[in-house]
Amino acid sequence: MNITNSELRRRARQTLGGRIFGSKWLMGLAICFVMSAILGTASTITSGIASLILTGPITFGLLKTFLVSSREQSEITFDNAFDGFKNFGQTLLLGLMQSIFVALWSLLFVIPGIVKAYSYSMAYYIMVDNPDYDWNRCITESRNMMRGHKWQLFCLDFSFIGWIFVGALCFGIGTLWVTPYQYAARTEFYKELKGDVNFSADTADTGNYF
To answer: How many domains does the chain have?
Structure first.
């Protein structure tokens, strides 16, 4: 994949409107916060059981939200945030099986678990684009897609460490702004792997994040 992580982050900022206090970035933050709050509250009440049940549908909805916004260069809204519950059975199974496989690999050692987590990382995006695929095919397609690209995605994730550090200095609140940025960047990573890029110089990021 002949693209730098810097360019992927630039495209992510473009999806988010380029300004951290702009409406698109703030809406992305709100959606991430609400979905995480739902998952966290339900998990606490049910001693973690709800986390296993809801992780798949919620993750599917979050990633679909950012994928749709990026492709259409449209506003980020809650319209797709709960779409994972429309295909609840398959998104539930995808979340469950992905968690189980990563956990089993992690029993061997931490590193194999991390490698497999990256190997399966495109599975939800694949299900968004192919709603007729079952969980097994989505994971298999993700493994094939990520062959030779896991290290770059790891480096992309690690490149946000500076943002996270700065956000932590703001009483931890600033880290909330990093979450939609990371989702948007991973979405651009998926689009690039899939050959699905539609950006032009006319809409280039100005570098002004405020």
So the answer is: 1
Residue 202 lies in a domain: no
Measured distance CA(55)–CA(167) in Å, rounded: 25
Is 58 within the bounds of a domain? yes
Model confidence pLDDT, tens digit, residues 82-139: 999 999 999 999 999 999 999 999 998 889 999 999 999 999 999 999 999 999 999 9
The pair of three-digit structure tokens given for residue 38, joined into one six-digit string: 């739902």
| CB 25, CB 177: distance < 8 Å | yes
Q: Model-level pTM?
A: 0.90
SS3 171: coil
Alpha-carbon gap, residue 36 to 206, rounded angstroms: 30
| Residue-level length of the chain | 210
Number of H helices, E strands in the chain: 10, 0
